[in-house]
Amino acid sequence: AVIYQAQCAACHGAGGNGDGPLGVRLEPRPVAFTDQARALERSVFALYQVISQGIEGTPMVSFASLPEADRWALAFYIGQFAHKQEDVMAGETVWKNDAAVRAQLTNLDGLARTTEGDLAKQVGAGPAAAAMSYLHAHPEAVVQKRPLTFDIARQRLAQSEEAFDKKDVKGAADLALSAYLDGVEPLEPTLATRDKALLA
What we know:
mainly alpha; 14 helices
């Protein structure tokens, strides 16, 4: 928030509306981060890239001089402008209670590269909007320790079966592989320390 107010608000506005005192005089006008239609198809990674590289032919310059961690924090912060506070609160409930949503976002890299539109195709528009509202404000939630569970593996295997039933053999194979890579492999170190025979 501090970096945004110091580096971005003059052009993009204190509330991310693209109406900062300098921004209203620029051509093209700065992006309004509150534009929900645009935010639907924008990932945090895309924001990070623009912050890092700027946009040629526009007043948007590179902020590569900022430490990498600050650029990532800024990208997640900017992602919050398209969401309302009540959506963030509703999203926490969805994130905690919807295994299908959690199965799609298993780490920070996945969260950063996933758009709300991408997630909606997998879990529906309502849960996707709520979950992204929460996770843009609390990205740490995807890496918090959760009980040892094979929910992700089960979810991907079910999706694999559905894809196979629809004659999508490649999609089914990819989802089956993901069931292991995303749903089982991350649990193996913990299993190994608890019960090596069970792991085998």
